[in-house]
Amino acid sequence: MQSVTVVNKKRVQIKPGIIFIYVVLFGWALTTIYSLFWIVNNSFKVSRDVMNSSFKLAFDPVMVNYTNAFDRINIGRSYLNSLIMSGGTVLLVLLFGGLAAYVLSRFQFRGRRALFSILYASLLIPAFATVVPVYELLIKWEIVNTYGGLIFPQTAGNLTFAILVLAGYMSTIPKELEEAAFMDGCNRLTLFMRVLLPISRPAFASAAIFVFLWSYNDLFSALIFVSAEEVRPIVALLSEISSQYGTDFGLMATAVSLTVIPVLIVYLFIQKYIEKGLTEGAIKG
Questions:
Q1: Which parts of the sequence belong to the ABC transmembrane type-1 domain (predicted)?
Q2: What is the pLDDT of residues 139-170, one digit of tens each?
Q3: On the CB side of 181, how many CA atoms lie within 13 Å of its CA?
Q4: Domain coordinates of the chain in residue numbers?
């Protein structure tokens, strides 16, 4: 007696809306990836080949552009300046933003809602509207064309975002954790360092990532506050290549590649922390 196996095949219905979404996402990803590939590909060509055949593959790559990037325009120094300024901005933002978020999220006091309203309203103020008073302060403090001349304005500009993200995350932490910590003899500072800070690591990581990327790519502030060559960040260097070496498109493509590729690599490794920090709850189980 032969056994008959009946296989139920279900028809998968694909909605037109889903198809449209995937087509749009595929087109967006294709244009973004191809643009990055085009820049990297042209960085291995001399300026003449970039002008005449920019869309052809560099079958015979040359490294002269990368040599010139480090020897002629000293891109390594600009890399170091960007890391110092962006890293200093991140540290100050997390320090002051974490403490402010702790107060706003765990304490009830008069004017708390007003402070939140002011913080949200400050996000609507464009950066160029504060350039003149900030520049005057930097002149009085004598820190124009120094590392602090860019770190302090960027810290002030990114602090509101960090406070709101961290405060929103800390407010979800159960009050029972505080009570248990106080019963174990913890004070406010110990509670923040040993309880709230470890639980809030995803939120701190997310804030650090966004602040670093915004600070690293802040061309507007870099051109105004740190115009000296010895403290020039890498984004300001890119704007000067077109004036000093306006016809050397291969060098420009190389400088852009060296600027974008490290940020892209870092983001690929830490993108999971962005998702955790913005969507995950403070505690599980």
A1: 79-270
A2: 999 898 899 999 999 999 999 999 999 998 88
A3: 17
A4: 16-63, 65-279
